[in-house]
Amino acid sequence: VKCVTSFLSLFICLFAQAKQPNIVVILTDDQGWGDLSLSGNKNLSTPNIDSLARDGASFDRFYVCPVCSPTRAEFLTGRYHVRGGVYSTSAGGERLNLDEQTIGDTFKAADYATGAFGKWHNGMQYPYHPNGRGFDEFYGFCSGHWGDYFSPPLEHNGRIVRG
Fold first, then answer.
1. Which residues are catalytically annotated?
2. Of the N and C termini of the chain, which has fewer Cβ atoms inside 10 Å?
3. Cα–Cα distance measured from residue 160 to residue 131, given in angstroms and rounded to the nearest whole number
4. Carries keyword Calcium (predicted)?
């Protein structure tokens, strides 16, 4: 009986449809590795981010650029920013080449629902817009910074909404 029960348990485990895990990635702008209390910073307290890192995954071997658009391009593609056409933060230099596959494209191909929230800064108009780069949902702003921090212009899937 034990053998049959064990076999049935193994059979059910092997053939049960695996549910895809939820994946949430947080990218903070211009934050260094040493800016977290988890990394030993005694001057800043970051308990919520520390908890996410302890209970999830944390990257401690990486390269990023010191400015926003190139860092985002590298995160989106997993490639050096210049290879994706991003060489600046303005005047078109922030736009990721259209032939680059993004993390959004990759997750969509694996039947995930995708979303990007917050600052994009890799192109404002379609097809550079997040909704054209593999993200089903976007809520945030596409430019480099807000002109008004008290009433920022935010958008939801290309439509301006109140912030």
1. 68, 121
2. N
3. 14
4. yes
Please choose, from the candidates 73, 127, 124, the residue with its C-alpha nearest in 3D space to the C-alpha of residue 102: 73
| CA-closest candidate to residue 122, choices 84, 157, 150, 158 | 84
Give yes or no for a cis peptide into 127 (omega within 30° of 0).
yes
Helices (H) and strands (E) counted in the chain, each on its own, are: 4, 4
Q: Which of 69, 127, 78, 71 is nearest to 101 (CA)?
A: 78
Could you read off the pLDDT tens digit of each residue along the chain, which spans 163 residues?
Answer: 554 444 444 445 445 556 889 988 888 777 777 888 999 999 999 999 899 888 887 777 777 777 889 989 999 999 999 999 998 888 888 899 999 999 999 999 999 999 999 999 998 889 999 999 999 999 999 888 777 778 888 999 999 997 6
What is the spatial distance between Cα 70 and Cα 102, in angstroms, rounded to a whole number?
14
Give alpha helix (H) positions in 78-119. Answer: 103-109
Classified as helix, coil or strand, 49 is: helix
**Phi and psi, residue 106, nearest 5°:** -65, -45
The answer to whether the beta carbons of residues 81 and 73 sit under 8 Å apart is yes
Listed residue (24, 16, 127, 130) closest to 72, CA to CA: 130
